[in-house]
Amino acid sequence: MFQRSFRSRDRAGKAVKSSKRSYREDLKMKMQQKMESPPVGSPIITLIVGRDARLFACHEDVLSLSPFFAAALKGQFYESSSKRVELPDEEPEVFSSVLEYLYKGDYYPRLLHDKRRNTWQLEDAMDGSGRGSVESTVYHNGVGGVLLKDSVIYCTAEKFGLDELKRLALRKQGLQTGISVDVILRTARYVQTAYDNTPDQDARLRAHFLALIIRSRKIFKRSGTMQNEMEIGGSKLFFDLFTAMSNHIDDIVDITNNRSPKTI
To answer: Around Cβ 29, how many Cβ atoms within 10 Å?
Structure first.
């Protein structure tokens, strides 16, 4: 599935082709083009989200940018008299990010473009201790633990039919650092269905998880949690990880052979 380590476009932190518009502005333009009319005058929809029934409000035109909600507003989930949609299985904090994306084309922490270095970075990516942003994780009530926020947003975007949000979430996840082993593995279990069912020709979710583990390899080598997960098995993740590392070794061998011909 993976050809010689990772392709450059899947490597976190790599430079991207320069653009006159920021990633956020480009997304916002695409979303606005999809809207038949501005949200002004559009009916307000009330959304009841999560176990605690938190209330959100959104313009119908904006909410309908999602194929899921466009259908829901015509189906059984929608109370037409009160203009309410119930989403008991969604996480309020994640759903708040989805709504922020629908209105602004991005969600906090925003994706920022460093024009001088021609690289992407996250707004407020590092705190004072040098650790990753606190916004990198979210507590998931259904799981009963902390997960990578961008991964949960990716799965939510998949459910709501928001392909651009999926790509944005993956790009952001690739920039996260300082994530603990247990959070990465817990998140891997959460998205295992999405991971195992991701076709080889669209393996970005898989590549990003592998890149995250490889970047943290020194910690993972000493992790009893990782050892237990690998002994239990049951996921394509570990074979893909083995394949990626084997390809990386092949790359190193090829470079070495070009300088001083020999084989391993």
So the answer is: 11
Report d(CA 145, CA 5) in Å as an integer.
31
Cα dihedral 88→93→98→101 (10° resolution)? 160
Reading the block at residue 101, the tokens are 């994306």
The model's pLDDT over 173-217, given as tens digits with 9 standing for 90+, comes to 888 877 887 888 788 778 766 555 555 545 666 677 677 777 777
Extract long-range pairs of 142-150: CB within 8 Å, 24+ residues apart: 142/89, 142/91, 143/186, 143/190, 145/186, 146/183, 146/186, 147/183, 147/186, 147/187, 147/190, 148/173, 148/176, 148/179, 148/183, 148/184, 148/187, 149/93, 149/94, 149/97, 150/176
pTM of the model: 0.69
List pLDDT tens digits, range 94-105. 999 999 999 999
